[in-house]
Amino acid sequence: MAASLNADDLQAVAGGGLLHRRLLLKSGLAMATALAAPTVAQSAGPDAPPVLPENPSSPSWLHQPGKPFSSYGSPSRFENRVIRSIGANRDLPGNGVSWTPLESLEGIITPSSLHFERHHNGVPDIDPAQHRLAIHGDVSAPQMFTIDNLLRYPMRTQTLVIECGGNSNAGWHYEPIQRSVGAFHGLVSCSEWTGVPLAILLDQVGVDPKASWVIAEGGDAAIMNVSIPLAKLMDDAIVALYQNGERIRPENGYPLRLIVPGWEGVVNVKWLRRLHITTEPAMARNETSKYTELLPTGKARMFTFVMDAKSLITSPSPGQKMHGANIYEIKGLAWSGRGRIAKVEVSADGGRSWAEALLQDPILPRCFTRFRAAWNWDGKPAILKSRATDETGYVQPERDVLVAERGRNGYFHYNAIVAWGIDEDGAVRHVYA
Amino acid sequence: MSMRNTTMRYGTLAGLALAVFATSLSAAEPLPGIQPRSQAPTLGTPMSADDITAWNLTIFPDGRGLPPGHGTPDQGGTLFAAHCERCHGVEGRGATADELVGPPTPPTDADPNKSIGSYWPYATTIFDFIRRNKPPETSGSLSNDEIYSLTAYLLAANKIIGTQDVIDAKSLAQVKMPNRDGFVRIDAP
After folding, report:
1. How far is A388 from chain B, CA to nearest CA, in Å?
2. CATH placement of domain B70-174
3. To the nearest whole angstrom, how far is the Cα of B44 from the nearest Cα of chain A?
4. Is B52 on the interface with A (CB under 8 A)?
5. ipTM of this model?
6. A292 and A314 inside one domain
7. CA nearest A229 in B: which residue?
8. Mean pLDDT, to the nearest integer, of B76-80?
9. Which of A121, A280, A371, B34 is deepest in the core (most CB within 10 A)?
10. Looking at the predicted structure, is the pLDDT value of residue A151 above 70?
């Protein structure tokens, strides 16, 4: 039964026509959403499926057998534009990134096939039967584990965000970049990870009480290594074997990935092969020359592991279009490396006033939280923002505040409030406001 | 959740190796009970000293882990032109890959140079990263002498060492980079 709106429902709770979040709980309320604005390439691309005219009351698929069973499913051919966008070194195609298309996804789980990637020298083709995890260093009993061994340990499952420390780095630019939200902020994804709590394995090798660091190493052709404080790994790290219920995809670390909840992507070492227990960091390339943030003082922040709270609006977002004055659903994602999201606020007047968004269950620590808000857009120019607060009380900063604190040359750990400008035609642009 | 509580919770699980109902295991195989930590079975196999030597690639900033060998900037220049210039540019000035050579003065906000001479805090990192990753098409193909030579070339090009200096395990560990003290630890002791 369709809900009827009353005058109270349409009473704005913040500037620009933002409505109370209780409106979203009314059953049967249909709201407008911004739609993807098709580009020329999309509407006439060679991969576009042929469009055959059908009578919706009696389409052809009601009258012929469908395709047979498939041993491993794949998305509808009509969804072939929902893909990662790739940015790689043209001289070295295995060195680069691919971004998750956040604007095309709903809920909180990123499909494994769309999880973002950062590789330094390609995706290794690892035979699990010949892969080993070596744990040695300041331990009483150095050991090697096979994948079959690890599969016999008790496991734990946790749904977690992994965000690259370099995500959203275009936010430091002097001019706002005009890209889809995924191609700007999509070095972040959320999966259900299952594996062996690392504390169990560390306990078995007998870690020396004076040890304080672990150097983790991956099994790719960059043999990427990074140093991580032992206390964090004892606390909640997982040696993961499964992602979203199946064995981890090669590009996400098959057969073994170190999962370090809430910490920047680079320490979530893919293709994990070695853990070296030590009393000091190795000062590897990816903890000195990279993943450090130069401040205006000339000093650089180092070992900035925690990904601070962040949120962004995925609809409407650049590349989508609003179609006239109406009540729209604003939707987006929020997360924090420090724990649960406590609150997300949305503004339609560039941050002068804010309305609290509805947080959709489940609200899990260090995991995507989906938020929604109702917006009675009057068709006039507006500036949308979202602002996350996590359970520690940390509030996502405005961009000018972050830039004043960090300067422009840090590159990593950009988590400022994101602003989308809506014009009278309903077009959405990234703005600094 | 406090770190201590979490660790204690795992502690009760430590060492509990479960049989899984895989095709290779009989479903009738008894599950082991929870055992005291001291008696916990491990499913790992011990690593010998030789195993550890074969596996251990870690190089520390004080030079521990550096292998025998040596090289000079001249020898390294020839290797750089052959293997590195295509992506890192002539004399390491940058191309599709990072700029490697820059003034040996710490970076400032006005001149945010992150080249080796300006930004990298430890010289051992250069050897380590080349050994792991370079050249990317055939990583692992360079000899230790060649890696020392490339390291010497990059240090000399950044005016950290002289053009005639020899770099080996001992001399590399003694190089003090200009930006050694340019970092502040945030989430680590």
Report:
1. 21
2. 1.10.760.10
3. 5
4. yes
5. 0.92
6. no
7. B188
8. 98
9. A371
10. yes
